[in-house]
Amino acid sequence: MDVRRLSEAVSVAPQIRPAEVADLAALGFRAIICNRPDSEGADQPGFKEIVRAAAEAGLEVACLPVVSGKVTDADAVAFGRLLDRLPKPVLAYCRTGTRSATLWSLAEAARGRALPDIVATAKAVGYDMTGVARRIANGGRTPTTTGEVRHEVVVIGGGAAGIAVAASLKARSPELDIAIIDPADIHYYQPGWTMVGGGVFAARTTARTMASLIPPGVAWIKAAVAAFEPANNAVILDGCRVVTYSRLVVAPGLKLDWGGIEGLPETLGRNGVTSNYRYDLAPYTWELVRGLQRGTVVFTQPPMPIKCAGAPQKAMYLAADHWRRSGVLGDIRIDFCNAGNVLFGVKDYVPALMEYVRRYGIHLDFQERLTRIDGPARTAWFTRTGPDGATEQVERRFDMLHVVPPQTAPDFLRASPLADAAGWLDVDQATLRHKRFPGVYGLGDACNAPNAKTAAAARKQAPIVAHNLLRDMGAVQGGDALYNGYGSCPLTVERGRIVLAEFGYGGKLLPSFPPWLIDGRQPSRLAWLLKERMLPWVYWKAMLRGREWMAQPELAA
């Protein structure tokens, strides 16, 4: 039997045989729903045979026959009512299980479950529900009108990558019809949150209204994306509104999975638990750092990929430097619990970082992943993986805990046809075109290109996507623009000094400045001034306005 569980209460399966019903009872099922009309196939047992076998096994049974490819709204309502009435767990079956999975999806939508969650759950057990995505988005009902809006170019995401690419497109083609889809009211300069947590920036300087940043002439659709229909050049929004396009740019950023660590959501911002990965918590980091005189501090880093891979240790170095300057560092133990096995992924920068690890007396704990927190008890548990792959639980007490949550692509992307097997946007790493769907492009943190997920990467990617998109439309000449994987991570090792890591694919060093000016492998005061004074200005005044200083794309011959 090929039983596929959709929830604790409902599983689906291809056609079952009467002889298998007793096995279903042994597995704990208490009811069966048949969604296949009799005589649909020559090798199909009749429903009455299933009824007899179910009676012998003590299972309840119901029949809701649905014609293949014709699941109606009434069918979905009736299926939901059967689920309400029958004892759980229930097994529903048809020829392949697809009709049963479709009925479950529409019934779940009627109960208010989110489209991405429904689609992802069905996809995980082998059923593609994107064909009924509009109905799921419409609460399990067939839309009476599409409410369709069309734009020549649609950009998903109003973060750094989305606004930058829209601005780069407008700079090249001022008459181009572009819309940005994003539900947020506020846009954040997230690279600044490390400095907020270190007492350098005020949080308010990292936030501006989204309306003030949307490029002139670009439409703003203030809504959340529910699903993609790339075969129809369509994006489905919450509430089943549909936006169609000629070209699509996908730049939704990452999902921070705070719930992926047991106990974390309940204690964030309290009990000494903080994170510079959230706007409202970065000031709490500085509050904790200033107030700590002695004790144990734990900084964590989850498995890759994450946005700005150096950010977890940036927070640690700035805190340690403050304690050193305050004369209390000797009374504070600092643990860096890193789920990876190296301090930093590009080896050229590790020697300089290790000098600061030794200076601050930091204890490095590799292959340790944070799994659970008890905030009131000031205790965290980590899963440590040994060289042989065996795991053990490590308990750590803390007075302050800086957490970096696990990170994934957004749910609506992971469950879509645009995603690769791991859930990331599937793009060519050089041109940033989608590998399978013409007219779709991607940039920013949700792509599967093996580059660092930083704002600096998005600054370089935006002109590349803009050029290639317009080239495909015949609006500009020349070869493809090619992305070399450039990313930058200004590692704040102390207040006033930064190790300016700049690198591309394969860890190749890609410095922007000559070594006599800034040697990125050594801590630099000039790099600190760049981070503190220049980069915020470049972000707000250049990157988000289509000014591509030091970011002009390189074209293939």
TrEMBL record:
Sequence ranges assigned to domain FAD/NAD(P)-binding in this UniProt record: 152-264
SUPFAM superfamilies hit by this protein: FAD/NAD(P)-binding domain
Cited Pfam families: BLH_phosphatase (PF04273), Pyr_redox_2 (PF07992)
Cofactor: FAD
GO annotation terms (biological process): sulfide oxidation, using sulfide:quinone oxidoreductase
The Beta-lactamase hydrolase-like protein phosphatase-like domain, residue ranges: 2-109
Top-level taxonomic group: Bacteria
Protein name, per record: Sulfide:quinone oxidoreductase
